């Protein structure tokens, strides 16, 4: 990827435009994104802390939830600091290798979250449809395997796509009309033919989205059928309440992904792409801990107990 000009080597760079075409919004956007990132870090790390120190939350559902919080924290940390930096500095250049590495880590956590949500859907299916067999069916070893599989597949997808991006050649300087190092924009500005890389990315993206959605939709269709067969209205409400937070999270997550892929001509609607990308990469990692904490009595009660204990210790 290093170009030679005479006796000097030239390191190709990208220029991340981000939101530079709206200079009057740079300070407000910086404050908004900084606030969102702060809430994301506090919310996700707080969720991990609460789950690990409270014995009441040492269950399978919260095991998945703690890993989802970790993935959200990592994903946001890969993307948001660079977004904040580009809002306050004039030099928005980034080396090709650094940009590709950012894509590599973002891809790992993005794919991992996709299949983590699918694993959580399967967990809810077993809990609602086979409650008596739940402990046996969702053993600790199976849960660990599902989580490890999600991380492993994320790493495999990321390393595969990263390898093909590194195999491309890049010009001295290219402009990326976005704030993230996405596969599509990196491949599109390469000086060599990106067809194989783009086709591979398309195949992996379709497979990941289709397979995860198939697991989720199948799980929730069976959950819905089981719940509607329950004789009591209170039993139906309780069953739906256990799935409410997760259903909200996957609707927002997959809804945003499908919206991004359904934009017919991204080059003619870059603002729409950027706004959707902000929601996908910055906002969703903040929303997940809020969704699960605000809709979950166990988490809220544990948080109140921890706060009360801390206040009681300080008052003595």
UniProtKB/TrEMBL annotation:
Residue ranges of every copy of the G-protein coupled receptors family 1 profile domain listed in the record: 43-292
Pfam families the UniProt entry points to: 7tm_4 (PF13853)
Keyword set, alphabetical order: Cell membrane, G-protein coupled receptor, Glycoprotein, Membrane, Olfaction, Receptor, Sensory transduction, Transducer, Transmembrane, Transmembrane helix
Keyword 4Fe-4S: no
CC annotations in GO: plasma membrane
GO molecular function: G protein-coupled receptor activity; olfactory receptor activity
Intracellular or extracellular location(s): Cell membrane
InterPro entries assigned: GPCR_Rhodpsn, GPCR_Rhodpsn_7TM, Olfact_rcpt
Membrane topology listed for this record: Multi-pass membrane protein
Transmembrane segments: 29-53, 60-80, 100-122, 142-166, 202-227, 239-261, 273-294
Family from the record: Belongs to the G-protein coupled receptor 1 family.
Function: Putative odorant or sperm cell receptor.
Protein name (database record): Olfactory receptor
Protein source organism: Vicugna pacos
